[in-house]
Amino acid sequence: MRCRALLCSVLLVTGALFAQAPVPVGKVQTSAKNYRGADGTTLSKNSSDSELENAINAGLSDNPEFREVRASVHKHHVTLMGNVSDKDVKHRAESKADHFVGVRSVKNKIKVGEMETQRATISTSAQ
Predict the structure, then answer these.
(1) Chain center to CA of 7
(2) Cα–Cα distance for residue pair 66/109, rounded to 1 Å
């Protein structure tokens, strides 16, 4: 009789442990995932395209390397456009945009080479 009661309690406790919600495993990345906008809003998977676009553009404008890069968002798919100095900067911009909550994909249309500010300087000095 004691064995049966002991066995029932072990099964009950084991069942209760397995019924709990699974614990997430792995590295949690928080760099841009928890972006809080200037107006105090926090991005989530349900954020609108305009909120996401504003957050990505604000995040990119923090870095002078991305001063000529702009993001547009349609149905949570991001398109990056503009000019940068080299390929590494292009890939860093794509990576930064991809790390925002709600981004489904990033299409990188950034051109590598001469930037607008450099062209303006060259054209004014040639005159």
Answers:
(1) 50
(2) 13
The two three-digit tokens of residue 33, written as one number = 């995932």
Q: How far apart are CA 78 and CA 101, in angstroms?
A: 12
Instruction: For residue 68, give the amino acid letter.
Output: E
Contacting residues for 93 by C-beta, under 8 A, at least 6 apart: 60, 65, 66, 69, 80, 84, 108, 110
User: For the chain, how many helices (H) and strands (E)?
Assistant: 4, 3
Looking at residue 27, its amino acid is: K
Q: What does pTM read for this prediction?
A: 0.62
Q: Which domain holds residue 112?
A: 30-126
Q: What is the CATH number of the domain that holds 52?
A: 3.30.1340.30
Rounded CA gap, 116 and 79, in Å?
A: 19
In this predicted model, what pLDDT tens digit does every residue of 74-109 receive, in sequence order?
Answer: 999 999 999 999 999 999 999 999 998 889 999 999
